[in-house]
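ok here's DUF406 family protein, seq below lol
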Amino acid sequence: MKENQTDTCDACGVSAEIGYIISEGDEVAEVTIHGDSKDAVQARFEQYLSLAESINPAVKHDFDPQQFDGSRAHIKLQFECSAEKLIFELRSRGLNNA
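and the structure came out like this:
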C-alpha cells in the first residue's frame, strides 16, 4: 500500500489525501456570533450549542454571557474527536447563513 494515498470523491470530483480533512488533535471549533443585543447573541449561541449537543452531548464550551461585548462573542466548542468537530462545522453552515 502506498504511504501517501489520494482518493477521489465521486460525488464532487475532489481529491484529497486521507488524513488532511480529519486531523488528530483538532477537536476545537471556533465560532464568532454577531447579534444586535446581548439577548440576541445568547439566543444565537443556544442554537449553536443545541446543534453541537446533538452531535455529542458531552461537548464543552467557553461561552460566558457576562464576558463579551454587546454585539458579538467568540466561542470555542471542544468535541471529543476531530470527526465530531468536522460534522459540527458542516452542519452549522446553515446557522451561519440564517
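fwiw The chain has a mean pLDDT of 80. kinda neat tbh
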